Amino acid sequence: MTSPAPLNVLFLCTHNAARSILAEATLNHLGQGRFKAYSAGSQPRDNQQPHPLALEVLRRAGIATEGLRSKGWDEFGRPDAPPMDLVITVCDNAAGETCPYWPGQPATAHWGYADPSSVTGTPEQQLDAFRQTLLAIRRRLELLVNLPASAVDRLALQDSARALAKD
């Protein structure tokens, strides 16, 4: 018996440099083959590099960072893009923007997190902001990956993802 194909999850944020990158890497780390995560932004960083502090907190948490890059969400609207099962906005700016049409009408949810890159202060305070954001994202993703199969089937996925936003 073959295992079912993983559910494709796309995390959206404006710049695809911090929160969505943290979510992508963390879900791929925790996903146990049930999930395949991607991330993108409406206005990705020009140099296509995630925020250095996002990469640092991921590495310190033992989460792989290879291949992570800032990308535009139009990449995932192309005919050759993987079909998404769930699209989650992780910043309030992206939640309010008009998103492109996603083939297959995936489930959608909004999980808002404060932008850790907007924190000023000492380098340690800035790193701690990224660490706290990673912990908050990880807690929610641990709940997602531990949902029973019936809660993540294609029909129940949107309700499940939106309910996790309330935790």
Task: Please provide the count of β strands.
Answer: 4
- Briefly note the CATH topology name: Rossmann fold
Query: Mean pLDDT, as a whole number?
Result: 87
Question: Can you name the CATH architecture?
Answer: 3-Layer(aba) Sandwich
Order of helices and strands: EHEHEHEHH
Q: Given the helix and strand composition, which structural class is it?
A: alpha/beta
Please estimate the helix content: 25-40%
User: Which parts are unreliable, with pLDDT below 50 for 5 consecutive residues or more?
Assistant: none
CATH class: Alpha Beta
Description of the structure:
- This protein is an alpha/beta fold.
- It has a single domain, classed as Response regulator (Rossmann fold), CATH 3.40.50.2300.
- It is built from five helices and four strands, in the order E-H-E-H-E-H-E-H-H.
- It has helices at residues 19-30, 52-60, 92-96, 123-145, 157-164; strands spanning 7-13, 35-41, 86-89, 107-110.
- Helix 1 crosses helix 4 (123-145).
Keywords:
single chain, 167 residues, alpha/beta, 5 helices, 34% helix, globular
Task: Please provide a brief summary of the model.
With 167 residues, the protein is an alpha/beta fold. It is 34% helix and 13% strand.
